[in-house]
Request: fold
Amino acid sequence: MLWAYELSVWLHVLAACAWVGGMVFLVVVLVPVVKRGDAALAAALIEGSGRRFRTLGWVCLGTLLATGTLNMHFRGIHFGDFFDGSFAQNPVARPLALKLLLFAAVLALSAVHDFLVGPRATAAWRRAPSSPEARAGRRQASLFGRVNGVLALLIVLLAVFVARGGYPS
Reply:
């Protein structure tokens, strides 16, 4: 079964790379470039890229959820352990619990951003790029994206602690 664990870890890391790397690309490369150009073209590019990345992002998040659950199982951590007190005895308990909590927050923030805030902001931007509604929508969508980006980076840090057996002493 070692091959199944290694495959699961590999898929987990690959999904994390695609998800975090995609967010970094959008924030550091795409958004600054399109903001300098024509507003209508920028709105269309952000909307199209956002839709494509939303699909990739949710596939990655689903993969992370599935492989993370499987990886915990392979490492002898089961959901019942969270409720019977045995999980707290595990050296990775604190970083893993925080990682899971942040992941749940990312799922909630991503859903709000991807299905409510982002589409509403893009629609307002397309209608009237310099309107107060469009500017407010872009700021709100940007805030959601940045918070998710910071949470993603914290999750990666916590993943290092989990893989290394807990927090450094």
About this structure: The mean pLDDT is 90. Residues 2-163 form one domain.
